[in-house]
Amino acid sequence: MATTTDLVIQAEDIATPQVKALHTISQAGDIRRIDHIGHQAFRLSSANFAARDEVAAYCENAALDFAFVPAAQRLSDFGLLSMDMDSTLITIECIDEIADFAGCKADVAAITASAMRGEIDWPESLRQRVRLLAGLDESVLQQVYETRLRLSAGADELLAASRKAGLKTLLVSGGFTFFTARLKSRLKLDFAYSNELAIENGKLTGQVLGPLCDAEGKARHLRETAAALGIPAERCLAIGDGANDLKMMAAAGMSIAYHAKPIVRAQATAAINHVGLDGVPALFN
Fold this sequence. Notes:
The mean pLDDT is 96. The strands form 2 sheets. Strands 8-7-6-5-9-10-11 form a 7-stranded mixed sheet, sandwiched between helices. A 4-stranded antiparallel sheet has the order 2-3-1-4, covered by helices on one side. The chain is of the alpha/beta class and 285 residues long. It starts with a strand and ends with a helix. It contains 13 helices and 11 strands. 41% of the residues lie in helices and 22% in strands. Strand 7 (191-200) and strand 8 form a beta hairpin.
């Protein structure tokens, strides 16, 4: 029996004519408003997936998020939520903000952006950026955490919905343990993995310690965590924004590109470009 597919559309504001237009384009059945989220969202039942390209073109022009999802799928069908940190769970790239204190933010940010687009080798890009931080006082890390790190819109709602649905939470980051450890404790996440900055005599050395949490490392942490919990790959949900998230996302049964680079949006199951992270649980309501 073929799986019935619904179309979920989301934005801060969705005009009635837009809902009607997408209802016609997708040849959908009923229209239902999705409540209890901070933006507008509608579920159009029994939508025709063959109309995806036309739906995508309309939504891009109208600045709407859309996703074709199995009608019966619920968040509780998953067992593990795996998330990137920088520019996904939080709004900043931590290394760029650290670099600001070293007077080289523009240089580091340019390398970060290129790596996230998949244009340069990610492990080498990280080493290049960390070298530029050599000599910086370690107190800068706390300053970045306290004054610049902010959760992405809807992050609390996503985590609350995930916990209520029984999912375990995994934070896997190409960033640094200083930040992931604090977020793990603050947000009561179950697991967190990232890279450790080398510090000697209170100063950053410009090196990272141990194996890198790169693209393959992220995917490995997802696979190993899921295996330890007895959760099959198809019950893993992964969210990321950059090219180094692609292997992790490919290892999950469903992947969501969050405010992501084009290369990531093209390979994800669904993309959220306009609303916050609370748009993720809305896909399953």
